[in-house]
């Protein structure tokens, strides 16, 4: 059992990022040990008045898939009109079993007032719950959270160094307090020239004032 962090209040929202079958062991873009956080997240969600879930939701042939780029392999990095993009294995295709939520997190999904689907535009990926990867197209989440009086977002889910981190950074950019409860996340940790994508994400998260 993961130790319970500070008590949430009515201005806090729990944002559960991409708790989907394709991101768990056995899935098409599995994050190591990703399934281990699902039942704890379901328990955690009972303590929040506001719960939001994001769902990666790509059309077949999405531009973030390596299979859409001749001569490229998953985890290659390519230049897109909006900047660098990591190419992924096909994953979370709309309506597929892999795009479903992990069964162990079902109680949290049932409790969620808002499910944000992202990555549905064919030509742009969306790691963040707030903005697509062009950093200008909004998902609508910031407006929703402001409308219901949320001031602080608590992020959990998958993957820590991509969709969780980008969501927390954008929460700060939108003027929310942002926390990541790291025991409820798991990372991809792709190697980079120096360190991994976890190190790169954490440098940005600390600079942006995201708390842990
Ligand atoms: Zn995706």
The profile of the biggest β sheet is:
5 strands, parallel
Query: What is the CATH level 1 assignment?
Result: Alpha Beta
CATH topology: the name is Rossmann fold
Low-confidence stretches: none
Number of domains: 1
* Strand percentage: 15-25%
- How far the N terminus sits from the C terminus, by CA atoms, comes to 19 Å
The amount of helix comes to 10-25%
- Bound ions, cofactors and other small molecules, one mention each: zinc ion
Structural commentary:
The protein is an alpha/beta fold. It has a single domain (12-207), classed as Isochorismatase-like (Rossmann fold, 3-Layer(aba) Sandwich). Helix content is 22%, strand content 20%. It contains 5 helices and 7 strands; from the N terminus they run βαβββαβαβαβα. It has helices spanning 38-45, 106-111, 141-147, 160-173, 197-207; strands at 12-17, 50-56, 77-80, 83-86, 114-118, 152-158, 177-186. The strands form 2 sheets. Strands 5-2-1-6-7 form a 5-stranded parallel β-sheet. Strands 3-4 form a two-stranded antiparallel sheet. Helix 1 links the parallel strand 1 (12-17) and strand 2 (50-56). The chain is globular and about 50 Å long. The mean pLDDT is 95. Bound molecules: zinc ion.
